[in-house]
Design goal:
255 residues; Immunoglobulin-like; four-stranded antiparallel β-sheet; 17 strands; mainly beta
Length: 255
Amino acid sequence: MKANSLFLPFYLLVLLLLASCAKMGQPDGGWFDETPPKVVGATPGDGATKVNQKKINIYFDEFIKLDNPSEKVVVSPPQLEVPEIKGAGKRISISLVDSLKPNTTYTIDFSDAISDNNEGNPMGNYTYSFSTGEVIDTMEVSGCVLEAENLEPIKGILVGLYADHADSAFRTKPMLRVSRTDSRGRFVIKGVAPGSYRIYALQDMDGNYMFNQKSEKIAFSHDIIVPSSKPDVRQDTTWIDSLHIKSIDPVKYTH
């Protein structure tokens, strides 16, 4: 009995050591992912011409989430039949229901709807485009929409162009090309062809892209908008490091 009692502390010590060795811990999750998803391909290809198919697939380098496409994703020219837009895995699939118009540039503006599946890093403004004709129209019209009563920006309102300059066009015809404003009231209408346009903002209640209800808010500009391009020069800065500039060079581009 006496000899066994001497070994008792040793037994207890061994058991405590074994218990501490078996303690479970939370595994390290690794580096935090700060890289947004990137497009690695599309069918038809982004910027393709002579397209006649209405099913589009866009592929990414990682699993993605598509947030609220019915409100955030804008197809132009506007679609009277709502297109089917789904995100699954590393792919976004779009099925257009309306008939494709000949010799027309189509743009699908995803705004900030795309993010990666793990950390939610937003991809930022991304627009896919194709043309049913031989050329892609690349001009843009941008601006902002403010509430007349308080000059606050209006978020999520439709902004569209009309090639018809008649004052009654916004009551009888759907918009030709459209965009939606962001949280700052800013908009960019993309894929615009050379020409002259009038511009309207519309709080569209019934989804027909024209003003036909008293409850719909509308705004317009009296100016005729003529998108154009010209050769221009901008400054391109090359850095040695974060503090020192190597050179500032003029670079020619199309404005």
